[in-house]
Amino acid sequence: MRRSCFPKFRLSRVMAWLQLVLGGLVIVVSISSLFRFYAAGFFMHNEDICLHFYSVKDVYDGFDIRALSDRVGEVLNRMESLQDKLEKTVQQLEKEKDALDKTITRLEYKNFLEVEVIRPLYSAHIALRQIRLPKAEGIGNSTMKEEPLINTFVIEEIRKYITPKKNRVGKVNIYGAEKIRNTIGHACVLMKKELEEYMDYDIGSYCKDDWNLAQKLMVNGCDPLPRRRCLTRASKVYQKPFPINESLWKLPDGRNVRWSNYQCRNFECLSSKNPKRGYSKCTGCFEMDKEKPKWVANRSVPVDFLISDILAIKPGETRIGLDFGVGTGTFAARMREQNVTIVSTALNLGAPFNEMIALRGLIPLYVTLNQRLPFFDNTMDLIHTTGFMDGWLDMLLLDFILFDWDRILRPGGLLWIDRFFCNKKDLDDYMYMFLQFRYKKHKWAISPKSKDEVYLSALLEKPPRAI
Ligand SMILES: *[C@@H]1O[C@H](CO)[C@@H](O)[C@H](O)[C@H]1NC(C)=O
Ligand SMILES: *[C@@H]1O[C@H](CO)[C@@H](O)[C@H](O)[C@H]1NC(C)=O
Ligand SMILES: *[C@@H]1O[C@H](CO)[C@@H](O)[C@H](O)[C@H]1NC(C)=O
Ligand SMILES: *[C@@H]1O[C@H](CO)[C@@H](O)[C@H](O)[C@H]1NC(C)=O
């Protein structure tokens, strides 16, 4: 454990004590103006006393030291100004020593100051400084640990959300936990202004139509977002969805979407022919005639595999899976026709992708790249990915994503990398990333995309793991 320069105190005790000290200071100041004494210049300026013992580099695990240090900093400033005042008073008294009350000797005054004022003040100052030092683990039992982040936020609803909720009457809940902690992504702290705007509402009232603010927070790493206690807005003219035998291949009713944060006002407007459609990825996705041939008809590029070929590799074994990419659920629709259930990830980047997938009768999963996938280990038969993973992705980020996919894929499960593309010179690096798991290679195809870019498609099978 790291050494600190002072013994550790329980935070609450120190805070309570701090208030006492401040109260005491006020009294000291009053006393100093009542008595007349001299000892000017005795006070030390000890701002740097503890700085030698700890540095900014020290990390306090699980403890929001910055927020606390901000609070303490305020108190320290106030205390220092009190000290200055006290000092000035003493100097003033020094000048007016002729009027000194002759019944009390100078020595007595000096002793009084040293013992009764300066020493307590000095130790109080030191004590204040050590408030910056407590380490969560050092404070006491785990149940006594200071909760991180709460002091960071001012908006009451955020503070309520992140405060742990204890089970009633000291019971352990069905999950075996004593309390429930609601989580927020650490980037929420960096995006404090946006988060406070997001969490500023009247409980029980209608939320603002601010899903785009929420999404901005999410894609920047404030993910998961806090839950809210306001009612989400919905289309005033929501129509019942089409029956499943029609919905898969039909453009949904535009009245079922709130369009206010998009450039378009209906699904027809999202056509690739419209330059003002408001989104750039997956441009033909809202045209069913363009979507229908995908994965079922031979395409121009040799990197396109057919669903029938893939399913034939392990007949009947592929039942559930994840489609990680950008799209309107067409892959899931085709798989559904083969009695395979696919969950499709989607973000509403400029168009209502989530609503579209859901209105087609398929399952949209609203997750960002940041999140660990909400599936248990070794559960999925298939992961298909297309459309979003290409040359922009940071290698380390991709590595974390691939390991997460490996986690949820069952032994014998298939990873279908579909039309991944990157710069030719990066191909070796990406190939290494995909092949590092030593999956069985069923299919592997590379073809040129442009002068400098290449497509890569692969069908890989996760091997059984002995351990
Ligand atoms: C610390 O935890 C132990 C058991 O985990 C408990 O017996 C003890 O009372 C706790 N101490 C405090 C100060 O809460
Ligand atoms: C879809 O199914 C319903 C009954 O479930 C039927 O009335 C309707 O005609 C079907 N539509 C099509 C296009 O087959
Ligand atoms: C795709 O092309 C191959 C040979 O080029 C052919 O055998 C196959 O039937 C075609 N499939 C479809 C769906 O057109
Ligand atoms: C899907 O399941 C239905 C009902 O069990 C069955 O009639 C149909 O043939 C299946 N389709 C495929 C492609 O296996």
UniProtKB/TrEMBL annotation:
InterPro entries associated with the record: Prob_Methyltransferase, Put_SAM_MeTrfase, SAM-dependent_MTases_sf
Mode of membrane association: Single-pass membrane protein; Single-pass type II membrane protein
Keywords assigned by UniProt, alphabetized: Coiled coil, Glycoprotein, Membrane, Methyltransferase, Signal-anchor, Transferase, Transmembrane, Transmembrane helix
Keyword Cytoplasm on entry: no
UniProt-listed GO biological process terms: methylation
Gene3D superfamilies according to UniProt: Vaccinia Virus protein VP39
One GO cellular component term: membrane
UniProt GO molecular function: methyltransferase activity
Entry's transmembrane regions: 20-44
Cellular location(s): Endomembrane system; Membrane
Coiled coil start-end: 65-110
Family to which the UniProt record says this protein belongs: Belongs to the methyltransferase superfamily.
Name used for this protein in its record: Methyltransferase type 11 domain-containing protein
Source organism per UniProt: Citrus clementina (Clementine)
Taxonomic lineage: Eukaryota, Viridiplantae, Streptophyta, Embryophyta, Tracheophyta
